[in-house]
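batch_manifest entry 22 of 60
target: Thymidylate kinase
source organism: Roseateles violae
requested by: lab member K.T.
priority: normal
notes from requester: please return tokens only, no post-processing; we will run our own comparison against the previous entry in this batch. if the run fails, retry once and flag.
--- input ---
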Amino acid sequence: MPVAGRFITFEGIDGAGKSTHIAALTERLAAQGELVNTREPGGTPLAETLRGLFLNSGMDALTELLLVFAGRRDHLRQVIEPALAAGKTVLCDRFTDASFAYQGFGRGMDLAQLATLEQWVQAGRQPDLTLWFDLPAAQAAQRRVGREVGAREADRFEQQDLDFFERVRAGYAARAAAAPERFARIDASVLVPEVWAQIVAVMEARGW
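--- output ---
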């Protein structure tokens, strides 16, 4: 039977620069075996449909939360669990830590409710490594404003104010403190090569 694969997630507030480094890490790990790149919300046809609603439709916080966990359940069953069982490495742009940070701390949802959904939907499945791109909300906002002219319109999360993103950042900090063996904090405030050097150091420390 194949050895179970590795599940690596990328987290951080909007503007933290995850996308650049997901691509770079994909290239680094490609020589080590098969990879699956995916994202949340999304990752399956059903979850991608829910993503469109989640990011662009008005709804209350509980509806938002239930949608993202419904998509996560399908994503786990259809993509993540089969890939890991086949020995593949899964790189996922956001996972449940984002729900705690955005819906829990950002929206003020009950963290106990979130924990119940987490256990119910994931049945104990957690990433093997979470790279948390930590960045002050004001610096992230400057980066979002500075994105290429003609890029897509900001979704309803990206339009939130600085206080919202500082609460989200605090949510990530709380999750990292609760699972230090899983989280690796990446200082995303520095230049791209310096961010990448931190990621390489984390991977080498784990023998990956």
